[in-house]
Amino acid sequence: MSNSSENKLVDHLFRHQYGKMVAILSKIFGLDNLELIEDAVQDTFLRAALRWRNELPDTPEAWLTQAAKHRTIDLLRQLNAAKGRHESVNEVSIDEEINDYFLDHEVEDSQLRMIFVACHPSFSQEEQIAFALKAISGFSMKEIAAALLLKEETIKKRLVRARKKIQTLEITFSYPAPNQIPVRISRVLHIIYLIFNEGFHSTKTDELISKDLCGEAIRLCKLLLQKEKFRNGEAYALFALMCFHASRLESRMVNSEIIDLKHQDRSKWYLPLIVLGNDSLLKSVEFDDRSIYHLEAAIASEHVRAVQFENTNWQRILKYYDDMYQMMPSDHVLLSKATIFLQLGKLKEAKAELDKIAPDSLSQRKYLFYGCYSEYYEKAGDLDNALEKIKLAIDFCSNKLEKDYLRKKMQSLKEKM
User: Three-state DSSP class for 254?
Assistant: First the structure.
């Protein structure tokens, strides 16, 4: 196996195993040892990367799990020594006890507890996101900074603050009280939603999709839904939304080129995920609560339901966006409405929505505003303005693959002139 392949394998396993190991060790040793635990897990992966250069184990995940168990005993010795304890460690009895923590249901329980720790109300929203991406999803400092479009130093400070709050407020590795669950669940779902979005529409400059992150977000949401006390309509709706989006992942990129919704090969859409999404959306309305995820899932459902792009029920989708704007007014929703009006051939209404938008409010998605405006001018027959706007879209776009897509559109406009 080449070094490049080994590195990819280690990265892949890191994504899947990091959060799991940190959660298990936090359950065993407590959150007050979190920094030590994270260092130990990092060290385990570093050792794996070095050892696997010479020989890759038959089952890398099992190797990592066994290494984590050994590391647990090392940590136990280390912590005992720090406390001045010198009693010997009975490795046989401890080994049996540690094995219990690595049973599947115990691992899932540990990870759920960690999700709620990440969304503790004493953390600011910015700290919650940074902490979740680090402790649950195994993002490096650099990756978190890239995902949130911030400097690494800023992320480092947020993580330090979060860890300090864990210490000073004596936050425990436990579930919230029953009366706090509804509020905490919403925050947990928001974090899962952010993780999925980073995978579905990456903010990295050279990558558009990260299937690992999409899969991780779906897995975390599924973990929540397995516990009856955490089920509500919002959680089912988010799960449905992610399933619908994930069903289209294989068709979004072909030969390293972005394929827009209109030109995607719908035969590649993954039916089992669409079925799972439909089931989850139906369950979401069995509960009394309604959320923005219900509307987003309903819109995604309309897209996957259409046999061809031309069969899309744009009028119904527009209604969902109207409802969404009532529930949560934002320029992002206005931009979506403008896009729908363009599909319906209602240029006047599309421009009216675009003119309401302050482009800077869209932050890193500002290029979508100019891309939509370009399409408006193209449909209106004003190719000069269409070209001007697509150039702005390219200037404000940071992702290489999306830039390439926009450049192709620009070339198409030039050929029409």
Answer: strand
